[in-house]
Phosphoglycerate mutase (Candidatus Acidianus copahuensis), 210 residues
Amino acid sequence: MALILLIRHGHSTSNQNRVLSHDNNTYPLTEEGQNQAKKVAKELERVKVSKIYTSPILRAYQTASIIGNHLGIVPIVDERLRERFLGELNNTRFDPSDHWKIKLIRGQIEVRGLEPWEVMQKRMIEFVNSISGKDDGAIVAVSHYDPIRSIIGYILGLDDISAYGISLPNASITSLEIKEGNFKIHSIGSPILSKDALQRLYRYVEIANR
């Protein structure tokens, strides 16, 4: 059994400027993003966190570092949590009202080098399976919108476009419990761990309060 808390990185300069990027060392957290990371770190005190994993990309690594400093845990970089590889779209601006994913599915554009949904799902599932059942406490994994959305889509049986409407705000919490290969979703894109969610996760709350 394992509880994995998937955290989307805090607000970054790429969000601010509406830029798509999978680059490792560009687009840091904004001041707003740093404050978001501090708030989610405080929220994570409510459960016993045993390890923190993070995407190597700067905005995620900075988020994980803020959380880790607060909880006294050094984050572990895992490439499987990285941003979706964007191919030709890397470091381009996008218009939310005329989204590139809709254009893609309608055949209006072709993006060379874009990481397929199924490939992204596979690496995220491999990550989850590789850490499940290894620790008593909860596992925090800091990643990005599309990778987190892809594993939710896998659990719910949704493809890229069918999962289009899943909302994952910056520094939000998506909590998954895994038991014997079966997934249970306790929250999706939540700013906090709700009272009801914590009651369902009593085992991890009790560990935190020992």
Notes: The longest strand covers residues 182-190. The CA atoms of residues 19 and 93 lie 4 Å apart. The longest helix spans residues 117-131. The chain has a mean pLDDT of 91.
